[in-house]
Every structure is written in structure tokens, then in C-alpha cells.
Amino acid sequence: MITIMPKTVTQNEARRNRWFFGGISSAAATFFTHPLDLLKVHLQTHEKKMSFKRAVFGVYNSHGMLAFYNGISASLTRQLTYTTIRIGIYEVGKPHINLQNFSSKIGLAAIAGAMGGFIGVPTDMVNIRMQHDMKLPVDKRRNYNHVFDGMLRIYKEEGLSRLFTGSSLAIVRAMVMTIGQLAVYDQAKIFLLSSTNLREGVPLHFLSSVTAATAATTLTQPIDLVKTRAMNAKPGDYESLSHIAAGIGKLGPYGFFKGFLPAFVRVGPHTILMFLIMEQLRLHFGIIEQPA
User: Which of 35, 202, 231, 273 has CB atoms 3.0–4.6 Å from 68's, for a disulfide?
Assistant: First the structure.
């Protein structure tokens, strides 16, 4: 149970995250948000307009409750690799930059996101395919047993390079996501601590994470839509990423924000839960900063 910390926690406020706290926190949050992520993929890969409510009942009526956790192994593996790396690099680098300078945090977050984004491409592809499988006709389903089965089959059937399809977009998205989540979160905390009566505790962490979730969703949604369609496509479906973008662009500028609400519904709770869990890990088990 998450408890609100008292307003004066001098020693705890001096604690900083261990490098692996982000991956653990993100994986824990994924258990709650995976169904929302699955619905987001369904909406983004559906050619015609579909409401969020229709997507929910479509999945439930056709495949039952367990279908909302299709691809959970890939999703968890992704968080334990991609998220651990990007948050880990960011946290390790924070003591070496000026935390009062927002541009410094942006630069560090971009580097961390790029490295984590590349590593996370194969698991992201399998995750998207497993979530989308139920929408395909029975004879065209891939039926991956789990994330490792999916990666092995893609390697054998489509080649090693296919595992990294859309890697450029995935890297850019990870950079933008890390900036939107981590850099904005830290900046929001600094602002709230200096401008309000809030101190370390759930209210501060909640408000900061809501700000970060809003920024991250807005920045990543157009990239995420193109990346999702590229990774889910079969060889020959699209000539290039620009071809995918052009197809989306036919719907107008708002086409790139298709599924924005379900994307925010997924990113918001996940970001909030991730930071709430990570902050509790930091306050209770983090590294105690030694006075200079």
C-alpha cells in the first residue's frame, strides 16, 4: 500500500534511485496497464474508425477476458530491457549534470532513450504482433507462444534485419518518450517544490507524473502510430515509412493523433504508477547521498 510521506523527510529526500528501479517499477505498472496498451494497438491498426468502447467489447466478446493480456510476456520483457536501460542510464547520469538546467536533462534523456530504444525494438515488435494477432483471420495468425518464440520465428522466417524494422522510429520515439517522462517529471518536481507547499510524497509525485504523462503522450503519438503500423506490417505491405506516413496523412493532421485518448489512457496510468512505485523504492531503498 502506498502511503503519503511526511513533509519533513530530510534523509529520504537526499536519496537517489538505483539504476534498476525504473525497470522494476515499469514492469509492475505493466500488469495494470497492459490491457489498455493492447486496445491502443487495436485502434491504431484498425483501418476504419473504431470507438474505444467498441474495441473493448470486440476483444471481450470474441476472445474473453484473458485476451486483454495477449502479449504480456513481450510487454514485461520490453520493460525489463528497454525501460531498465533508458531510465538506468538517465539515473546514473543525473549526478553528473546540472539538475536545475532543463536543457541538460533533455540531453541526458535523449541519449538514454536512444540506447534503450534500439535494444527494445525486437520485443516491441513481438508485443505489437501478439496483441494484434486476434484481429487476423485464423489462417493468418502468427500464434507466437511467448516473446522468445516470437523473436526466434521472426529471425528464422523473416531474417535478422526484420527484428529491427522501424528501429529508427523506435529510437526517436524512445528519445522523445524519455524526455517527456523523465526530464519533464524532474522539472515538474522542481517547480512544484519551489512554488508550492508540497514536499516529498504521493501528491507531489502524482502531479509531476500527470504532467509527464501529458507531455510524453503528446510528443510520441504521431511517431507511435507510424511505428505500430510498420512493425505490424508483413513484407511488401508498405514501401517505406514515408509511405505509411503518407497514408495516415490522407486523414489530415488529426490522423497522426488517431487513438490519442486511448494512448493517453494507457500512458497516463502507466506513467503515474511507474513513478509512484519508483519514488517509494527511492525513498525507502535508494542510495543515500553523502554530504559534500
Answer: 35
Using DSSP's 3-state secondary structure scheme, residue 287 falls into strand
Answer whether residue 281 is part of any domain.
yes
Which of the residue ranges 25-39, 60-74, 188-202, 255-269 would you say has the lowest mean pLDDT?
A: 255-269
Judge whether 1 lies within some domain: no
Q: Residue 28: which CATH number?
A: 1.50.40.10
**Which pLDDT tens digit goes with each residue over 64-93?**
787 888 878 888 988 999 999 999 999 999
Coil/strand/helix, residue 17: coil
Instruction: Kindly state whether residue 11 falls inside one of the protein's structural domains.
Output: no
Identify the CA nearest to 214 among candidates 271, 279, 256, 277. Answer: 271
Residue 163, phi then psi, degrees to nearest 5: -65, -20
Helix (H) or strand (E) holding 288: strand 287-288
pLDDT in tens, 3-59: 444 444 455 567 899 999 999 999 999 988 888 877 877 676 665 666 767 778 777
d(CA 70, CA 139): 18
What is the pTM assigned to this prediction? Answer: 0.77
Can you read off the three cell numbers belonging to residue 153? 520465428
173 closest CA partner among 244, 104, 113: 113
H/E element, 16: strand 15-16
In a domain, 7, yes or no: no
For the four alpha carbons of 175, 176, 178 and 179, in that order, the dihedral sign comes to positive
* Angle, in degrees to the nearest 10, between helices 167-178 and 202-232: 170
Q: Give the separation between CA 34 and CA 88, rounded to whole angstroms.
A: 22
Considering its fold, how many domains does the chain have in total?
A: 1
Q: What is the mean pLDDT of residues 272-280?
A: 97
